[in-house]
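Hi there. Long-time user, first ticket. I'm pasting a complex I've been working with (about 436 residues overall). I'd like to know whether the download I got is complete or cut off, because the file seemed smaller than I expected. Thanks.
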Amino acid sequence: MNEALKQGSATTASRIYEVLRQDLLDGRYGAGERLSIALLRETYQVGLSPLREALNRLAAYGLLRQENQRGFRVLELSRDELADITEMRRQLEGKALELAVEHGDEEWESQLLAANHRLTKAGSHTPIVEWEQLHSRFHNALVAPCGSVWLLRFISQLHDQFDRYRRVAPRAQELRHQLDAQHQELVDLALARDSRRARALIEEHITLSCEVALKSCR
Amino acid sequence: MNEALKQGSATTASRIYEVLRQDLLDGRYGAGERLSIALLRETYQVGLSPLREALNRLAAYGLLRQENQRGFRVLELSRDELADITEMRRQLEGKALELAVEHGDEEWESQLLAANHRLTKAGSHTPIVEWEQLHSRFHNALVAPCGSVWLLRFISQLHDQFDRYRRVAPRAQELRHQLDAQHQELVDLALARDSRRARALIEEHITLSCEVALKSCR
DNA sequence: CTAGATCAAATAATCGATTATTACTAGAAA
DNA sequence: TTTCTAGTAATAATCGATTATTTGATCTAG
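Hi, the file is complete. Here it is re-exported in full:
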């Protein structure tokens, strides 16, 4: 969906899709909230058709729930779903990292170092939205050369889902530090081509970030 | 997406979504073909808005590719993607079946037997579209109680993707028999609660159906 | 009071017409 | 002939207005 934006002329529908997606990840709209189409039109200053097309895409992607004749709602948050998402991320990102470590080339190594550098430089002063983006890019860079388009697609999708939970979590400083340290370790293991241990670590990493998110999940 | 249809009043957009999805799986439109919106309108006798909303959903779901200002195209078929889809199905359905065998209750056992019975009864005389549906239902029934909403979601999505390849494959009779026999074996292993061997068999099953599909994939 | 029916207001879905962009064709220059 | 350009036809995207459905308030019967 993202490539569509980059390639030259974006349509209104594509633009509003990206903006809405980001706002949903940022928690701008509450869990379970009904999205009034008229209100959205006003807020984002867009026409009805492109807005509805964007909402339809978001529903198919899993960030909104569409009820016929009753419009669109933000998805609810639940402990059960967080557990589900976390377990799926463990499985899929674990597998993907294993493959990436085996297949990644020199270009990948540089990209990974760069992504980690940018993430490390961004301290607690950077706005959280910006940090989230760097964090996403780092994780993307990690698994990018796994060789499976569908695996990457599912991972991104789950990452978006997970972000909704991360966003409502308080920023626990001690755990945050531990997570940052794991990012560095992940790079080290990746460059050392230790796929076994890299996989084990990212699974641990995902479990830990789930625990952070859980602290705020009712 | 399917539940939306069942729950009372379906909208035009939801109806046309389901019809288009089925037609895409049935191979009514060729791989890579551009879908003319005006033509679709005429073919399905629907208005522009609901049609475009359905197309947007299908693109987000991965059955169409959307190019800004250039409309919608059917996705191409490729050996590489078939290999990707097959490997993902092996991993995910394998895992799901393992969990289902561990968690499934008596109700599941009956559903499974029923689904298998219906599939077995439908011989080579039944139209292929109908057989495909029974086959899908059987595989759904197998993994249904795995306990993970996201796992089931990804499996369905991959199943739809795979169906596009299966649809263009010639019906090789010997292999077909072998696949049918595996369905029975899967039921037996499931009822015997042998999750290890059930998983191994479904992985083999998926690989075999991939080979059937490959025979026709350029 | 409570449950059910009825109507009015709100709003989701759809339609028809318009605008913007791309694709195609023909003609001119190299 | 080939390659560019201009103009035109085709069509994708968007807008504004209309229709259909749901929601919520009010009223009535039990």
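A couple of notes from our side: Strands of chain B lie at 34-35, 64-67, 71-74. Chain B touches chain A at residues 1, 4, 7-11, 13-14, 49, 52-54, 56-62, 66-69, 81, 84-85, 87-88, 91, 95, 148-151, 153-154, 158, 161 (CB under 8 Å).
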